Amino acid sequence: MTPPAQRGGKPVTEKPLTDGHGRAVPPGHDQVGRIGQDDFRNNIRGIQGNWDRNDHDYHWSNWGGWDVCHHYDEFGFHWWGFYVNGAYFWTRYFNDGYWWFDPYWHRWVYLNDGQWWWQGPDGVYLYTGGWYYNYGPGDGGVILTPDPTPPVDVPPGDATPPGNQVTVYSDDGTRSVQIVGDALDAYLYDLTNPDGAGIYLTTNVQSAAFVNDASGAVNQVVLTINDGSTQTFDANGNSLDGSSALSAAQLTAAPSNANQTQTLQQRVTGSAAFKALQSGNFGW
């Protein structure tokens, strides 16, 4: 979609929305928080529902200080451009939702509950920080794994994908464990303290799981080592081995707090772990 060069007879001066590397990015938290409000959505629904499908011009409006441009293309899609604070971004509004085209991976991502998602052939992916992460269920949490698929067109700036890392988020949204590097080092993060550093736990880690107490708060962190053994820590990273740690058998038998009959998307958007992601507390 080619943005218009004129607005009310004057040149458009805003630049495309980009990150610090000059990479095109979708609307971030601030923009999403505004365009996701009911007044913007109701305006869009009203215009699209009554549109003259022979009209393929560009039409400008101002919604609460935001210059908004609408275009109905020759293929039957409605495009919306938002021009604010010196930048602009364009999305499609289709099936009552916003869509953004990634020019590097050539993927359509959709906005859901404040985050951008891609429905891949093998599952749901979270798009954040210019990269894709497979979002899957785990014991007492949700797991983010970087997608190693290279882009179709290399983006500007640092095009190095995230390294060997897996991040597990607790269901209550207060803790995450990151397993990183060739040595598979595990670090524990307190997501209630975004300025806190990760606590090193151990190395050669295969997987991580959270165990919750009766209130649903994180009680223990259980790491499975590549040799099949386990190491257990409390919520602050203190070792519990030899004391009150749950055994591997007890961990396996422990029920997850999440309702297993829910779809992954329902679990994702309703969980405290997802809310922690929305706040930007990724721990890396």
Describe the structure.
- The protein is mainly beta and 284 residues long.
- The protein has five helices and 20 strands.
- The strands form three sheets. It has a 15-stranded mixed sheet that branches.
Class derived from helix and strand content: mainly beta
Helix count from the secondary structure assignment: 5
Count the domains: 2
| Major sheet details | 15 strands, mixed
Order of helices and strands: EEEHHEEEEEEEEEEEEEEEEEHHH
Total beta strands:
20
Summarize the structure.
This protein is mostly beta strands and 284 residues long.
List keywords for this structure.
284 residues; mainly beta; 15-stranded mixed sheet; three-stranded antiparallel sheet; 5 helices; disordered C terminus
